[in-house]
Write a structure and sequence with these properties.
Organism: Solanum lycopersicum
Domain Leucine-rich repeat-containing N-terminal plant-type: 21-60
Helix content: 10-25%
Keywords: Leucine-rich repeat, Repeat, Signal
Strand content: 15-25%
Largest sheet: 7 strands, mixed
Number of strands: 13
Shape: globular
Order of helices and strands: HEEEEEEEEEEHEEE
Radius of gyration: 19 Å
CATH superfamily: Ribonuclease Inhibitor
Distance between the termini: 73 Å
CATH architecture: Alpha-Beta Horseshoe
Protein name: Leucine-rich repeat-containing N-terminal plant-type domain-containing protein
GO biological process, one term: defense response to fungus
CATH class: Alpha Beta
Number of domains: 1
Structural class: alpha/beta
Number of helices: 2
Length: 198
């Protein structure tokens, strides 16, 4: 009986280690894809068992990544699809940098995400419809980028069926208008889409 319990424990630990390593690999893929002139990501060592000791990364009690806080870090480069592998991520904050390129559709895999902060970057292309899978999302800040096209219907449905409290898409090149209404009886979401000229 003890042997079976020991085998089970070793197997469980191996699964946890693999999961942590995959999260480290995902974050390392992002690190290798950006320029970091201030060495903000210097502690991101891919040879470590998990990324929980890295600066700007927060983990839960199971050593799984729940926060990535890289606002105002002077980073440039692009987001990588591997970020969608951070299955327990709740906060992705990469605002106020010079991140360019498209928002990977794989971010729609982050179903535990509560806050997505990508504002004040140089992101372009469309808002991925896969972001509509983020039913727990409360704050979506995509403002002050170069995003184009229309806000996908799946993302707008987060207003009705999700927990979304703030969606800021102002200062982009988006088409269309979202009309404010409170006829549905659902919680009110603040949608910011206007650009204020100074």
């Amino acid at each position: 009986m003890r042997f079976i319990a020991l085998v089970f424990l070793v197997g469980a630990l191996a699964i946890i280690a693999v999961d942590c390593n995959s999260e480290g690999d995902a974050l390392n893929a992002f690190k290798t894809n950006v320029a970091d002139p201030n060495n903000v990501l210097q502690s991101w060592d891919p040879t470590l068992v998990n990324p929980c000791t890295w600066f700007h990364v927060t983990c839960n009690s199971q050593n799984s990544v729940v926060r990535v806080d890289l606002g105002d870090a002077n980073l440039s480069g692009s987001l990588v699809p591997q970020l969608g592998m951070l299955s327990n991520l709740q906060y992705l904050q990469i605002q106020n940098n010079s991140i360019s390129g498209e928002i990977p559709s794989e971010l729609g895999n982050l179903t535990k995400l509560v806050s997505l902060g990508l504002e004040n970057n140089k992101l372009s292309g469309f808002i991925p419809s896969s972001l509509g899978y983020l039913k727990l999302l409360r704050y979506m800040r995509l403002n002050s980028n170069k995003l184009s096209g229309e806000i996908p219907i799946s993302v707008l449905k987060l207003v009705l069926w999700g927990n979304l409290k703030l969606m800021n898409v102002s200062d982009n090149k988006l088409a269309g208008t979202v009309h404010h209404t409170n006829k549905t009886g659902f919680a009110i979401t603040t949608i910011v889409q206007d650009v204020k000229e100074i």
